[in-house]
Amino acid sequence: MKNTIFFLLFSISVFAQKTELKSGDLLFININCGGMCEAINAVTDGFEGQDFNHVGMVYSDNNQDFYVYEAVSKCVMKTPLNDFLKRTSTIYKGTIKEPYQHLIPLAIEFCKSQLGVPYDDDFLYNNGKYYCSELIYDAFKFANNNKPFFKLFPMTYKEPGSDNFFPVWTDHFAKRGIEIPEGKPGCNPGGMSLDKKIIVSKLSAF
């Protein structure tokens, strides 16, 4: 009985959220991935002080089936919205402002064309792989005649107010056999949520 009630409440919530969403909306969330996510949250600021360490783009198939294009885990994926929502209880929506809405179809086509591209564990821009916000950055850059739509900033992997790298990053890049890309250009979900070309709002809770 409890499982039935939970499923009913979840289904009602998902339906309510779908009515708030349309293709091209960005979904900002904070997922739990251990020390790496904690390190990201410690050095990035999001809309209204929120911690965002993941972002994806909504795609609606004739307003019936909803998906999220995202770079996560192993590669760029097209994830059913219901599965995306199960990762967190707090979701913020970023709506592209009206003067830029015409970019959305091409941005979606770009994400579609990148399905299966490996996840960017190196966190280096323009290396043929994608982490979450990097995918969104390139999608809108492509749609904007290859001109930047969002911004790149110097990335940091150091503890706030210190010259020491987070141990999780030291271990991560050591295992990959590459130098920590401190100061290299990149982007993150928090910074993207502050861009003035989008309107950010909290989705209905479930």
SSE layout and pairings?
Layout: H1 2-18, E1 26-29, H2 35-43, E2 54-61, E3 65-72, E4 75-80, H3 81-85, E5 91-96, H4 104-113, H5 132-143, E6 153-154, H6 167-176, E7 185-186, H7 189-193, E8 198-202
Antiparallel strand pairs: 1-2, 1-5, 2-3, 3-4, 5-8, 6-7
Helix pairs in contact: 4-5
Structure, described:
It is a single chain. This protein is an alpha+beta fold and 206 residues long. The protein has one domain (21-202): endopeptidase domain like (from Nostoc punctiforme) (endopeptidase fold (from Nostoc punctiforme), Alpha-Beta Complex), CATH 3.90.1720.10. Helix content is 33%, strand content 20%. It contains seven helices and eight strands. The strands form two sheets. The chain has a six-stranded antiparallel β-sheet with strand order 4-3-2-1-5-8. Strand 2 (54-61) and strand 3 form a beta hairpin. The protein starts with a helix and ends with a strand.
